[in-house]
Each structure stands twice: as structure tokens, then as C-alpha cells.
Amino acid sequence: MYNNNFNFGTLLKKPLLEYIEENIKLNYIIAEINIKEEDINKDIRIINSFEEYNRKEGCFGLIEKKDYYLYENEKEIKDNCKIRINNNNINFNYFYKFKKKGIYTIEYIFTNNLTKTDFMFFGCSSLTNINLSNFNTQNVTNMSFMFSWCSSLTNINLSNFNTERVTYMREMFLGCSSLTKIDLSNFNTQSITDMSYMFYGCSSLTNIILSNFSTQNVNDMDGMFYECKSLKKENIITKDEIILNEFKI
Predict the structure, then answer these.
(1) Residue 181 region, left (φ>0) first, then alpha (ψ -120 to 50), else beta?
(2) Residue 105 CB neighbours (<10 A)
(3) How many CA atoms lie within 13 A of 22 on its CB side?
(4) Among the four residues 60, 92, 213, 234, which has the most C-beta atoms within 10 Å?
């Protein structure tokens, strides 16, 4: 249960650590966002909503509203998520107007376990760091497009992600063009059927750890590493030969 009296500003603060020890099921994400001069007083996306996207010819990854299955989790996220910015509670919204430039801490606190996280941070192009090490994903089945077009993201912590039930990871990191390293060594991919375009456009990626990846049930891996211009085959750590065969420069 979320308690307003605790300071959620950073994982390093003792009150939060003590609170976690007492409430082990606490479910939250901490992120940082870099607001530049030109971003002040504009609607900056801080979590995904789906009302804006329409497919355009030649613009890969944008969706039409008629594709309802792509945004059916909007209500689930809204109903189960509280958002704080620099320790201040805000009314739930998908956008926020920042009054000054600088680095802001955003906390997403979830009251229940989500079953779908697809598109959760799609298009959040100002997010620079996301720590999901305390985010409970044990019931999640779909992570497609989860971080697509997070183009400023330089650091992502997925060390405790539970992907046991996940079947879809399509375009999960598409367009994350500032990421240089992704460690998915803890991912259980036994149930995944779709990894297509998973890292498409991760143009700065130089190292990727997929040491426990299994593609035994995957039926679509098209374009998995497409446009990963900085990545070399020897820097893909995996035991799965099919993944290496899919890597094309």
C-alpha cells in the first residue's frame, strides 16, 4: 500500500530502503527526465497514452487507433499507477508541463500487478534513465513496444524483471538510439513467440547480454537487430545460435 509519508525520491535514501524491507511487495519504477530550455511549459510525455498515434506511410512503428489490442492496457495502467515528480504527487496524466529546465526524478508507484506493459513508455523521448529493478512483472504477458522511441534513454535497469509469462516482445527497444548496453541476462524467454524488430534502430548499441535467451518457441525474429549499426557479432553474448544467425549488419 502506498504511503504518502515516505520519501520516494531516490533508491539510496534510507527511509525508502526501510520501507521496502517492511513492505516487500512494493511495486514501483524510478526514472529521470532531462528537461531542456526548449521543453519548458510544453506537454512532455511521461508515460504512454495512445490517442495521438496514427500510422504514416514509411514511418515504422506508429499505430492506428483501430488496432485496439495495441492500447487496451491504458485503463489498467491509469487505474493502478500513482505518479510523483521530485517527491510531489501529481494528478495522473500522460503528459506534464515542466516549469524549469533540469533533471527531474519521476516515480511510478503501482498498487496492483499489471498484466500488460506494452507501449508503457512508447514515445517518452525525454526519459534518460529508468530503474525497473523493483517493478513486479510476474503476471505480465505482453511487453511489446514497451520502450519504443525512448530515444534519449542511456541507462535501463531490468535486473529483476520476471518474464516467465511473457509471449510478446515485439519492438520492445525499437528506436532506443542512445542505449550503448543492454543486459537481459535474467530474461526467461521460454514462452516468447515474437521477438521481431526487438532492437531495431538501437544505433549506439555496442554490447548486448542475452546469455539465457531461448528461442525455442519464437516464430518471428524478423529484423531483430536491424539498424544496430554499432553492434558487432562478437559483442552479442548468447548461447543461442539462432540469435547470432539473425544478426545482420
Answers:
(1) beta
(2) 16
(3) 10
(4) 213
